[in-house]
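Re: the multi-chain job from yesterday

Posting the exact lines I submitted so nobody has to dig through the queue logs.
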Amino acid sequence: MAKQKKGQKAAGGGLREQLLVPAGEVDLTTYDTRATTGFSGTKDDGKLALENLGPEVSDWQERLFAEGRTGGERSILLVLQGMDTSGKGGVIRHGAGLMDPQGLKITSFKAPTPAEKRRGFLWRIRQAVPEHGMIGIFDRSHYEDVLIARVRELVTPNVWNRRYDQINEFEAELTASGVTIVKCYLHISADEQKARLEERLSDPTKYWKYNPGDVDERKLWPDYMEAYQAAIERCNTPDAPWYVIPSDRKWYRNWAVTTILLETLKELNPEWPAADFDVETEKKRLAAT
Amino acid sequence: MAKQKKGQKAAGGGLREQLLVPAGEVDLTTYDTRATTGFSGTKDDGKLALENLGPEVSDWQERLFAEGRTGGERSILLVLQGMDTSGKGGVIRHGAGLMDPQGLKITSFKAPTPAEKRRGFLWRIRQAVPEHGMIGIFDRSHYEDVLIARVRELVTPNVWNRRYDQINEFEAELTASGVTIVKCYLHISADEQKARLEERLSDPTKYWKYNPGDVDERKLWPDYMEAYQAAIERCNTPDAPWYVIPSDRKWYRNWAVTTILLETLKELNPEWPAADFDVETEKKRLAAT
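And the result, structure tokens for all chains:
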């Protein structure tokens, strides 16, 4: 499924290599939404494995944060996309929730306001790019501008068609300025979505998450799949690759995205910053107070 | 220590009542930095008690968040102030870290930039006020404008002197617009600070947290205590009260601030939003897809 093809950057082994989308044509029907690629164990094992990632991912996060506080210019941007109920919020709550919230910059993108629209679709995205040392997380993103915008015909085909290249240029610009981009498509089946929407309608503590518009969007499922395929295919660049995360099992999804984040942090390998002062001198100054 | 005085709002019982600063003159030397007010148990008990707050505080946070997503206009703003090493970051990491990062808006205030300064000291603070349903956390705040600004004479006495009233007006405005303000002063002793700075100088993974300027600030300890006393005394209003958190024991500090947040959430008592659609109709519409 995730065979490396020529021209696609190797992801450094590990889970990323297994979930990376190979360059070339994308057919989402060939991706199993219930897979647990790279993990052998039960649901309970998976939940425990996620918890156990906490200390390590949090330690690496602090290193990156420290680097950013001392002149480093790197950051990570995790882009989360997926159909309603695919679990973008769940990944943030259970995966990102393992980390220090001080080092996270989470942005949830809703329909753009008129003020945002007139500045071009990438303007508000740029505002949300993580600062040095931070892990930025996008709950939806500029990809909505080639997903809902395309499916709902919010702009002409000519406009959305040009956006793929605009996105690639934008992401290349970010990469060049020190942002490591990780794009995860949370892949669920239409049946699983139905079950999750039913759950929301059966539990009064979840009514607020339900919107009648969700059913209307659901009816356009095939159109969305086509739009996702195009987005993944046309914006799957070596520097800003797409991962397809099987997401019918929530525990696997949370573990997988967090593992990908951890692998990304380790590859960046931020080191504890050296002192930019003389330690012995400072010890003496402090002792004298 | 935290006896209720006339004119000061009752904090609804619990830990808040015990740590609330009574109206009137403030003498920080009468507040024990090593106290464990309201908690009986060991350090390990305290750490466990904090962990155990997780599910409850996180549930209430989600209710507030849900309320904000469905038209509610309330939010919480936790202001953290304290000398270097007092643990503002620690409270966020270990206390706020128990919650869903999606519902947190954390802002760390550094020295203002020229662009910020020319807009008045409250401008950048207003930018960071939490959205409806969010818990905002300020790591330092507008209080620096009557703390370091006063101690370091960054502005004339006439200017900082007027700021207390300006802050009170600003906070009253926020309160009126639905923001519940909780101000915590993390109270440590000068000796404890010395020990923590020594620790930073002895551990290469902590060098990045150390700044030679910290020792210079430390030399002004009495001036800072005076400035803190004035700030707490003059800006201790019924709607935006100050709590003094004994902070020489990190575990107690984290538990205490988190408990205060929990009590605040419970007092707001946000309820799960009712459905603004007909549940049965939606179930049928969904079933038909």
